[in-house]
Amino acid sequence: MEEKLDRKTAFRELSPVRLILCALCLMAIAAAYLLRDGETGMRWVYYHISRPYHTFMARLCAHVPFSVAELFYALAVAAILVYIISQIVRIIRKPEKGRRVYITILTLIVVCLLFWAAYSYLWTPYYYAPSFAQQADIDDGAVSTPELEAVTRYFAGKANQYAGKVPRDENGVYAADRQDILNRAAAVYAAAAGKWPFLAGDALRPKGILCSKVMSLTDFTGFFFPLTGEANLNMDSPAVMLPATEEHELSHQRGIGREQECNFIAVAACMDSGDADFEYSGALTAYIYLGNALRSADEAAWQKIYASLSDTVLSDLKQNNGYWAAYENTFVYKVSNSAYESFLQGNGQTLGLKSYGACVNLLTHYYYAIAK
């Protein structure tokens, strides 16, 4: 009887703060899911919580030259590892092991729930806000194969046109200065913001990530971090894609959540920049997505356009493909893609990772008039 009473007392003494935090987080997450049933609730969160928070944090973090997001991840991973190791040592050395295991697991659950709750209010609302296509009044519906072929040919020609105007190394591979590209990102984005005023925002420099090889291992060329409002870039992957990628991440920073729409804006901003390195990156990015779609629809038409690409363009495509081929069969790469696929689908992007390629419809509708 005494032993049972001791166990009950020990259970009651288990950190009530953790239990309260768990309950509060679960309630907040449940409320966020309920808000998804109607656009009104999530749009209110978007305009009154998510966007004001990101604007404030982006301005604050702009005062430091490094990525606060990267520092956050590094400290979070280090803290969790130290905590787990210290708890394992305490479990081995001290009595009441069951109680210690319970506290350890509960603490880790609280951390995960806090992170989940934060994302539910700082990122999920982006997928329920008015879409870029709606606000810009651009058709994003299905396109015909002839239309797709015409726009693919147009961007292949643009890639050929700008390929010889960009800096190259002794091997003929694109070699623009990465820091200079970051410095010019906001100015280039101004072209898109001028055309579509709802994209207006502070001219903030995106941040390069020091541990970029880790990003490559997880198949990320860039990411927007909702907790700090920063646009972050992989500085190890091929530089030829960097200009378009940073414009993509700046689109997230300006309030656009859907990946295909950020890809479209990135291409449009690059093509209107007047800078050959950005125009080349935008044209090549558009060609890759359009070419992949055309190849599935009409391989013979794709073959003709592919054959028209210059050796310079082909060398950049080969370098880009070769870089990612070194990672794509690794365990971490596959797990990361699987997890991100689930994340996108869980937030209403039913195409998952294919959402990035869905920019084909927007590109085709927008550029067909000048491509035909």
General description of the model:
The chain has a 3-stranded mixed sheet. Helix 12 packs antiparallel against helix 13 and helix 12 (276-297) packs across helix 16. The longest helix has 26 residues, at 68-93. 68% of the residues lie in helices and 3% in strands. The protein has 2 domains: 2-127, no CATH class; 132-371, no CATH class. The protein is built from 16 helices and 3 strands. It is globular. By secondary structure, it is mainly alpha-helical.
Order of helices and strands: HHHHHHHHEHEEHHHHHHH
Number of domains: 2
Compute the average pLDDT. 89
Which structural class is indicated by helix and strand composition? mainly alpha
> Main β-sheet, in a few words?
3 strands, mixed
User: Whole-number radius of gyration?
Assistant: 24 Å
The strand order across the widest sheet is 1-3-2
What fraction, in percent, of the residue positions are helical? 55-70%
Strand content: under 5%
User: What is the overall silhouette?
Assistant: globular
Number of helices: 16
What's the number of extended β-strand segments?
A: 3
Termini separation (Å)?
86 Å
Uncertain runs are 1-5, 8-13
Question: Gist?
Answer:
The protein has 372 residues and is mostly helical. It has helices spanning 2-12, 16-35, 39-61, 68-93, 97-122, 132-136, 145-163, 178-195, 212-217, 242-253, 259-271, 276-297, 299-307, 311-325, 331-346, 359-371; strands at residues 207-209, 222-225, 230-234.
